[in-house]
Automatic annotation (TrEMBL):
Signal peptide per UniProt: none
Biological or metabolic pathway of the protein: Glycan metabolism; chondroitin sulfate biosynthesis; Glycan metabolism; heparan sulfate biosynthesis
Major subcellular site: endoplasmic reticulum
Organism: Caenorhabditis briggsae
Entry keywords, A to Z: Disulfide bond, Endoplasmic reticulum, Glycoprotein, Glycosyltransferase, Golgi apparatus, Iron, Membrane, Metal-binding, Oxidoreductase, Signal-anchor, Transferase, Transmembrane, Transmembrane helix
Protein name (database record): protein xylosyltransferase
Lineage of origin: Eukaryota, Metazoa, Ecdysozoa, Nematoda, Chromadorea
Amino acid sequence: MKFLGPQFLIQMVVVGGVNTNYRHYALVIVLFFFLNVYLLYSAQNSVQIRKDEGETREKTPKVPLVDPISTCEIVDELAKSAISRATSPGCKSKLQLEACQLKNGTFSESFPQSTCSNHQDALIDQRIGCFLDKKDARVLKEFEYKFPQSNSKSTCRKNCYKAGFLYYGLEFGLECFCGNDVANATEIDSGECRNYKCPGAEDEFCGGFNAVEIFRTGLKNKIVMLKPKYLPPAENVSKPPIKILFLLQLNGRNERQVKRFLKSIYLPNHYYYIHVDKRQNYMYSEMAKIAEKVPNIHITSTRYSTIWGGASLLQMFQQVIRDSMEIEMFKDWDYIFNFSESDFPILPIQDFERLITEHQGKSFLASHGYNTGKFIQKQGFEFVFSECDQRMFRIGKREFPENLRIDGGSDWVGIHRDLAEYSISNEELPQKLRNTFESILLPLESFYHTLAFNSKFCDDIMMSNLRLTNWLRKQGCRCASLKQIVDWCGCSPLVFREDTKIKFEMQKAISKPTYFARKFDSMVDIEAIESAEQQSMSTSKIQMDQPTYHFAYANIFKFGIDKEKIAHRSLASFALNTIKSHEKMAKIVQIDALRAHHNAQIEIVMTVETQSGANFEFLIHRKSHVNLSTSGALEVDGYVLKDVVYGTKFEWKEEICREYMGFVTEKDTLHTRLEWSPTERVKKNGDKTSPEIEFQYRNGPEKIDKSIVKPYDSVFGGQFDSWDVGKRLSNLSTCPDFFVDVFSPSSSESPLATLRFSVYTEQNVDCHVAYLRDFFEIVDFCTSETACGEKIWSMSYPDPKSDIQTKMENPTRHFQMMLRRIAMMAKRFDGSPESVNIIHSVVANFDSSILRQFLPNRFSRVVHTMFSSVVPTTTTNKESSGIQYADIYKDEFCHVNAFGFAHAGLKIPLHDHPAENAVMKVFQGAVRIRSFTILEETFDEDYWEQEDGRPRLLVRYEGETVLSGGSEGRHSAALGPNIGNIHEVVSLEPHTYFCDFFFPPAASCNYYRPPPPSESLHVGQTLRLQQIRSPADFYCDIMEFPQFQKFNLSGE
C-alpha cells in the first residue's frame, strides 16, 4: 500500500474532491502528525525557567540530529519500563524517540580515527599469528568477551581497542580476547585458527579449539600512566605563574562548611566560579552574598539540576568553560579544577599551586585503577541512558562506536586551558563525543579521559586528580538512595570520621601526592574537617580558641525560599507561648540545625518574627522517647543493642536522618535505626553486624503492623526498618501515640527497646501542642540583635572559621600555635625526606605578616647575655654589628631563632650546622644564600689537612639562592645534614629578617675560610673548604622578639 504523505493529506482536506468521510479521517491524521512533530521538537529543546534570584536553565540532553521515525513498536523491556515510569509528556516522547533510533540503528555516531601519537592506522588488524591457547594458560589474559551472534575481526578489534589493549584474539567462534603481551606464546599452524566461522562475518574465521588468532588493535604501546610527585617548598619553580579557575559545584544547605572550604583555598591571584544546583535556592542566595563582596568570586545564574550520574553535570562543566571565557575579569585562566561542597584541602593551597605551575600544559585526571575492560562494563557503557524528569533512564543496549579508546575514573578533574577549549570546539571529535556522552552514565567521569586519549592531547595527561577519596565500597555501594534518580547501582564515598581521618595525615598526603580529600560533612564529624584544616592552613587563619570553632550548622528553612510546614508553625507558636510572650507569630524567618561538637546531640535554632515586627530567636532541644530494656536482656545472638534512633530523610550510606527536627508527617517514611555491638564470640563469625530482629508498630496498645529484618552488614553497626507512614495512616485527625517495639524473634514477650513518636498532619493541628510539650524543650531565647550576638548558639554569634574576610587577631597566639605544631612534628621527625618536607611546608606557608608584627620599631643595639652558642656573644665595648639575633624557642626536639640585618650587604660568614636539618624563612627583605654540600662519601682522613687542628673538607658547590619576604619569589629553603649544610647569608635589602628552624636543636656551628667568588665557580664543582676559628669581626646584637616556654608534648 502506498504511504499517503502529509502534503497529500492536506490537499485532501483543503482542496476537497474526495468523499467527505475520508476528509474527516485525513483531518484526524494530519492533526496527529503535527502533534507528534510538536512533542518531538519539545523533547529536543531546553526549557528556560526564570526564578526570583536570577535566570536558571535546565538542560534536556539533545538526541542525535537525524530524520526520526516518529513511532515504532517498542519491544525492548528496558525501554518499555523507562517510558512507563516517565511522568512528563516531553520525557515520554524523548524516550520513545531514542528507543526507536536505537532499534533502527540510527542512534550512534561514526568517529574518525584517533590522532593520538600512540595510534597508528597501519597497525589496525595487523596479523601476529595463530597461537596455542588454553583455558588455564591464556595468551591474551587481560580481558575476555563473548559475542555469540556478532563476533568478527571488527567487533573484537573495536572492543579491545576501546579498552586500550594492543592485541585482540579470536577463538572458538564466539570468543574475543584482549591483552598487551604475546611474548611467551607458542605459535602453531595457521590452519588451526580456521576451524570456526565468525558469527558476525561469514567470510571470516574466528579461531579454533584451543587456538587463538591474534591481531593488532592499532595502538603502538601499552599506556604508561604519568603521575606527579610532590614538589617540596625548597624546590624552585622556574615556570611563569598560572591562574586557576576553582569551580565549586554545590548542593545542600550547609553553606558555612562551603565558606570554610572557600576560605581554605582562597588566594587573590586565582578565580572562584560558583555553580549551585538549580534546586538549591538557599545555597544560591548565600553564595551570592559572598560573590558581591569579593571581586574574584563569581556565581553563575545559569544553573542545572546536576543529578547523580546525569548528562547535566558534563553540560554544566562545559557551560562554565564557555561562560568564564566571556567574563572579562575571569577569562585568562590556565586551569579549571572542580570541587564539591564536601571537599577540603589536606595540604597547603600554595603547595598545590606550585605543583600545577611546574606541570603547566598537563591535565590532571584520575585513573579507575584497574582493568579498563572491567571499568567499561561497570560504568554501563554498553547501555543507553537518557536524562529527563530529573532521572537517568536506561532504555537499551548500544553498539558502541568504533575508533574510540575509552578511559575514565573520576568526575573531579583538572583541565588545562588548551584541552578545555578543544572540548567545547566544533571540531569533529569533541562535537561527536559531546553528543555521544549525553547518553552515557556519569559522563564527566570519562569524557575528558576519552577525548584526550583519542586526540593530540594523549601525551599531556597526568593520571592523578590530586584528590583522596574516602572509599569503603561495602558501605558506599548501597543502591537504595539512588533508585529514585537512576536505573543503575552506583557507589559514593563516605564522610571522613574519627577512625578514617588517618588516611589523609600529612606524610601520606605528600607521598601520593594528594592535595584535597572528600567527603567531609561537619554535621557528621566536624573534627575531621578540623584535622584537615590544621594540616593545610596557616595557623594565622585558624582561631581554635573561638567558642564556635567546634560548632557545625545546617540550614533547614529560610523565609522567602522554602514553604512553611504546619509542624514548623506549631513549634514557633509553642516557643512563644512557652516564654509567656503575648506576641503573635507573623512568620518563621529561619530554622537551623546546630551541633556543638561531633558527639553532641543536634539542637534546633529558630528565628520567629512577630506581628509587631519583633524578632525572637530560640534554642530548642529535642527530647528522646526511647526506652531500652532495663532487664539487661539486650543481647541477641551475640550482638548487644546499644541505641535506637528514628527519623526521616534517611541516608543509607552514612546511616543518619537528614530531617534534623524529628518531625514525622503522613507523607514520610519512618526509619528506625538500631545500633549493635558484637561480642567476642561473633566478631569473627561471618560478615553480618546484627542479628535477625522483629519490629512491631502500635497505635497505643493496638498492634497495626510488624516486619522481620534480616541480619545486616554495616561498618557502623547499624540495622534499619522503614515504615511508610502514608500507606498505613491516611487522613489522621486524632491524637494517638505511636510506638515501635523491637523484639528478638526468639522472645516476643518483652521488647528489647520501645520508642514513641507522633505524626503531625494538617488535620490534627489541635494535637500539636501536646506533642510538642512532650518532644521539645525551649532551652534559651533572645530578642535583640545585641543580646543574640552574645549567645554562642545564636546564628548572629561570630563564626570566624567560615568567614573568608575574617581579619587576624592575636598574632602572638597564632605564632605560638605554629611553633607548637613545629615542635610536635620535630618530635616525630624520622630523618626521611618526607618528614623534612612536612616541616618545610608548614614553615613556608606560615603568614609572614604575623612575624612582621613582632619586629622592633627601629633597628637599635640592645646588649644582653646571649641565649645560645650558635652565634658569637656581643660585648659592651664593641660597636653595633648591624646584625641582630633572637632566640625564640628551644626544646630537645627543635630550636627556633631569628636574625635581622640593618642594611644591605651584611653577611653571616660561611658556616655549617653539624648533623642538623634546618628550614630558613625570610619574612621581610631579601637575602642571597651561597651553599655547599659536604661530600660524605669522601669524608675520611686522606682528605683532611690540618691547620691549627681544624679539618679541610671536600665539598660540592650548590650555587646561589635568593629568598624574599615579598609577595613574589621564593620565601624559604631547607638544608640537610650534608646537602647545602655549609652556607653564607648576605642581606640584599635593608631591614631584612628571617627565622631559622633547626631539628634536632642547633649545636655550635663551625666557620670556614671564604671560598672563591661565585663567578669563578660553577654548580657541581668540587673544592676544599678550610675550617677556621670564629671570625673576630662577626658578632650579633640582641633583638627584641617574643620568646616561648617549652611546650608540654608528653601527650602528643
